[in-house]
Structures are given as C-alpha cells and as structure tokens.
Amino acid sequence: MSAPPEVPPFEGPELDAYLARAGVDAETEAFVRSLAERGYALVDLGDEARTLIDRAVADTDRIFAAQPGMNRIQDAWLRSSAVKRLAAWPKVARLLRAAYGRAGFPFQTLNFLKGSQQGLHPDSIHFHSVPERFMCGVWIALEDVRPGAGPLVYLPGSHRLPVMTMRDAGVNDPRPTPEHYATCFVQRFAERLDAAGLPEERAIIPKGWAFVWAANLAHGGSPLTDPDSTRRSLVVHWYFEDCLYYTPMTSDVEGGRLSLRLPANVATGGWTWPRRNGRRVYPGRNPVLAAVLKRVFRRPFVAES
Ligand SMILES: O=C(O)CCC(=O)C(=O)O
Fold this sequence. Notes:
Blueprint: H1 15-22, H2 26-38, E1 40-44, H3 47-66, E2 72-74, H4 81-87, H5 90-100, E3 104-112, E4 128-130, E5 135-141, E6 152-154, H6 178-196, E7 201-203, E8 209-214, E9 219-221, E10 233-240, E11 244-246, E12 264-265, E13 270-271, E14 275-276, E15 279-280, H7 285-297, E16 301-303
2-oxoglutaric acid is lined by residues 110, 112, 115-116, 118, 123, 137, 152, 219-221, 233, 235.
C-alpha cells in the first residue's frame, strides 16, 4: 500500500498526473480542479439531503427558539441525527477523499440562523494539521441564500497564499492567545489580502448545495443588508486521517509547540486519534480530558455571534 500524500493532491504540483492515475469521474474531476484553481468547489447534495435538511432545520429551530437572540449552535450533531447525517454526507466524503488522497472525517458542526457577519479569515489559523492543509470547511445552505441575508464571502485564489502563523502576524510569544489573534492577526491578515488584490465573491447558492473551502481560503460573512432575513446554514469542519491536529491560534508553530487536539469524529460518534506515518500520537492530557468532558455534558454550545 502506498503512503498517503504529504500535500493534498489538489494543492500540489502533480495534479494532472494524480487525476490520471486516480481515474475519477467527470464530476469528481471538476470538483478537485475547482478546489485547485479557486480554493473552493460547489456540490449539489441532492434531493435526499434536501429532505433531511427540513428535519435538521426543525431540530435546530427548536434550539434557537429556546434561546432568543442566539445565532450559532456548535455541535448540534450531538442532539440531531439529521444534522449528524448531513455532516457526514457520503457524496461529500467521496469527493473529499479524491481531493485530499486520504479519508476525511467531520469533526465539528456549526449551525447559523442568520448571516454570521464574521470578518475574512482562513480556517488554517483556527484548525490545522501536520502535514499542513489537511483540513477543509463544508458550508451547507439549509435554505436558498438571498443577497441581503449576509451570504458567505470569499476571495478565490487566496488558498495559494502562504499559511499565516501567529509569529508571521507579529506575535512574538510562545503562548499566543485569542486576544493576540484579535489584536494582531486580524490586521496583518487583512493587509496581506489587500496586498494580494484578489476580488471578493459571494456564495448565493440554493438550499441543499454545499460550498467547500480549502483550509487557507479567506472567507467570512458579508454584511446583513436585510436584517430580518434568515440564512440558515450548517458549517462542517473536516480533518483527514493519519495527521496531527492542532489549534494554530494558541500554538507556537515555529517554536515547535502545538496545541494538539483530539478531534471528534461526527460520522462514528467517537474520536479520531492523531497519527503520524500510521502510528498513534498521544495529544496530551488536556485535549483528551476536554474531549471527554465535552461528550459527558453533551449539550450543543449556543453562542451569539
Ligand atoms: O457562515 C459564515 O458566514 C461564515 C462561517 C465561517 O467563516 C466558518 O465557520 O469558518
């Protein structure tokens, strides 16, 4: 058996040869090439998924209704089997397998009721892997996205920029914090995007379609120009097997101190143990404890932003 790739094939220089070897169908090839060229790809999840979406919306609307003013539910998959099934949708798993050359697994879900209005950011500062870039986001429209509802905004091609670490952002601290992110990273990242001069686009997509982004693609939520308008969506974050998983925002990557994670595996309901070259790596006591405690309390976390 050949070793898994150290670079996601769609991010690497040998894509044509990889695709020829893999012998994928036309839809898969278009998906992989879109990720390579633009850093994102669109997927129609199909009518079965649209039926399931109605159940997921009913489940999450109940949680939102119980907490007026709240706009985000983290890990509703722990409470809703419809969210859980959508998060691990087989068509998405198959396409990602082709793009990354490794099996993927969803590790977290976020449900939004309205647009998030989040600033432009790459997921590679929130979740990353060793080897790098084995992470992606899958944004599923749970209703048709209207232009005034704060659609997802993104900069095609920004995935090719170098991954920005906290040190790159000017944080000279071996233990960076979310405060450093807010005070340094956000500004430095915005400057980098300005310098790159890439155009902005918005994802105005129908219910049941997914927008898949590469780990380093700059994306966020555009302003809500119609404040009453909902924009129900499910964001699923995926990792890939045989990697280490960590939180870059609180890591000193250059200094070799990673905040390792023990990610949940939404598909199996368990966890996926970090591995390097086929061998298990112990992520440390705190990540294991955090993962277990989260499961014991089982309540999906509801937040305002
Ligand atoms: O849904 C949005 O508006 C943005 C979501 C996002 O940026 C994320 O989950 O990383």
